[in-house]
Automatic annotation (TrEMBL):
<comment type="function">
    <text>The RecF protein is involved in DNA metabolism; it is required for DNA replication and normal SOS inducibility. RecF binds preferentially to single-stranded, linear DNA. It also seems to bind ATP.</text>
</comment>
<dbReference type="InterPro" id="IPR003395">
    <property type="entry name" value="RecF/RecN/SMC_N"/>
</dbReference>
<dbReference type="InterPro" id="IPR001238">
    <property type="entry name" value="DNA-binding_RecF"/>
</dbReference>
<comment type="similarity">
    <text>Belongs to the RecF family.</text>
</comment>
<keyword id="KW-0963">Cytoplasm</keyword>
<dbReference type="Pfam" id="PF02463">
    <property type="entry name" value="SMC_N"/>
</dbReference>
<keyword id="KW-0238">DNA-binding</keyword>
<keyword id="KW-0067">ATP-binding</keyword>
<keyword id="KW-0234">DNA repair</keyword>
<keyword id="KW-0742">SOS response</keyword>
<dbReference type="InterPro" id="IPR018078">
    <property type="entry name" value="DNA-binding_RecF_CS"/>
</dbReference>
<feature type="binding site">
    <location>
        <begin position="30"/>
        <end position="37"/>
    </location>
    <ligand>
        <name>ATP</name>
    </ligand>
</feature>
<feature type="domain" description="RecF/RecN/SMC N-terminal">
    <location>
        <begin position="3"/>
        <end position="360"/>
    </location>
</feature>
<protein>
    <recommendedName>
        <fullName>DNA replication and repair protein RecF</fullName>
    </recommendedName>
</protein>
<keyword id="KW-0227">DNA damage</keyword>
<dbReference type="InterPro" id="IPR042174">
    <property type="entry name" value="RecF_2"/>
</dbReference>
<keyword id="KW-0235">DNA replication</keyword>
Length: 385
């Protein structure tokens, strides 16, 4: 898969931008603050329905305007596709494929990309929610139907939390508890599927993660991933106790049965707090290096290498599974953080991908082998391409 052309209207600092892209490596160069990252942010949005920089879509709409448009021409398996999204300041965003309106959550079916940026250091050092989002975005890219499962789980979770709050305020009564039992079953059915899908994804990521870390760092620090499940007693509150967390391999019986039992045991505490205390919305993923949790123990360089290796492993997994070919690999301002040897190793690691998009503030930071097609950006204007 590759992007042949990107068009932006009123997106970030671009009133209008048109950028052609070539197969292989594409380098986007510009001083800080000129808009180079905005280009790859737009492409990342098409495949994940989110930004790697902000949580609010409205921040991507040009100041003072009501809407922004991202439009990309894509090519894979001899097919050409025009994917579009309109971000609206008020009302729902709108997606189109080949000029036909589609549901927004279906947009990632048509474009697969993996983006690594400095913000991804939060995968190692940030809150559990960052790691959950990483897993879920990768799940959707591999199996688009899971977008619906995740959306349904969130909806059931909100309904259940509303009922818990109501029961706490009025004192739990028989009818409310019976209704809660009904919501429990729906939460368990959806949540168990998410937990199992995440567990399989973590298992599959293991081997390519080890290979990618060695390729980037030039050393074998034993990188590993361990799932931490709230239905087994681990919660967000334990985020810094990675070595005491429980892996999915410790479960006995079906995930649904374990989840159901956990909810039964937590019923009194949930009614007191008005909050659902177990489920995939409270799980975490523990990163290990040298048999220690990376969070709290890994150096800056090791954390950086782990996060980058995780994204490279994701791209490798997608290229194995996808009928549409390689995902587009996006490296946003990565090379400035690396020494010469790691720059060379990273260039070798990404050389085999069908298309790689790279941003850099300084042309000399990027190995010459990756600068075959260069686009210069200045003050929201594409100088050449």
């Amino acid at each position: 898969m590759r992007v042949t052309h990107l068009s932006l209207t009123d997106f970030r600092n671009y009133q209008q931008a048109d950028v052609p892209f070539s197969p292989g490596s594409n380098l986007i160069v510009g001083r800080n603050g000129q808009g180079k990252t905005n280009l790859v942010e737009a492409l990342g949005y098409l495949s994940t329905l989110g930004s790697h920089r902000v949580s609010n879509d409205k921040a991507m709409i040009r100041a003072g305007l009501d809407a922004a448009i991202i439009r990309a021409k894509l090519e894979y398996n001899g097919r050409e596709i025009l994917a579009e999204v309109q971000l609206n300041r008020t009302g729902q965003n709108r997606g189109q494929v080949n000029r036909s309106v589609i549901r927004m959550r279906d947009l990632p079916r048509y474009f697969s990309s993996v983006l690594f940026a400095p913000e991804d250091l939060a995968l190692v050092r940030g809150d559990p929610s960052v790691r959950r989002r990483f897993l879920d975005q990768l799940l959707i890219l591999r199996t688009p139907r899971l977008a619906g499962v995740l959306a349904d789980y969130d909806r059931v979770l909100k309904q259940r939390n509303t009922l818990l709050k109501s029961a706490r305020a009025s004192g739990a009564r028989g009818t409310q508890l019976n209704t809660l039992d009904i919501w429990d079953e729906r939460l368990v059915a959806l949540g168990a599927e998410i937990i199992d899908e995440r567990a399989e994804l973590v298992r599959l990521l293991g081997p390519p993660l080890k290979a990618a870390y060695h390729a980037v760092a030039g050393e074998d620090h034993g990188p590993a991933l361990i799932s931490s499940l709230s239905i087994l007693g681990a919660t967000d509150d334990d985020a810094d106790a990675g070595d005491s967390r429980v892996s999915t391999g410790s479960t006995t019986g079906s995930t649904a049965d374990v989840f159901r039992t956990a909810l039964e045991g937590l019923r009194r505490k949930e009614l007191e707090r008005g909050l659902t205390l177990a489920g995939p919305h409270r799980d975490d993923l523990v990163f290990m290096l040298n048999a220690l949790p990376a969070k709290g123990y890994a150096s800056h360089g090791e954390s950086w290498s782990f996060a980058l290796a995780l994204k490279l492993a994701s791209a490798e997994l997608l290229r194995r599974d996808s009928a549409s070919g390689d995902p587009v690999l996006i490296l946003d301002d990565v090379f400035a953080e690396l020494d010469q040897s790691r720059r060379r190793r990273l260039a070798e690691a990404v050389a085999g991908f069908e298309q790689v998009l790279i941003t850099a503030a300084v042309l000399e930071d990027v190995p010459e082998s990756l600068a075959a097609h260069t686009v210069h950006i200045e003050a929201g204007t594409v100088i050449d391409g």
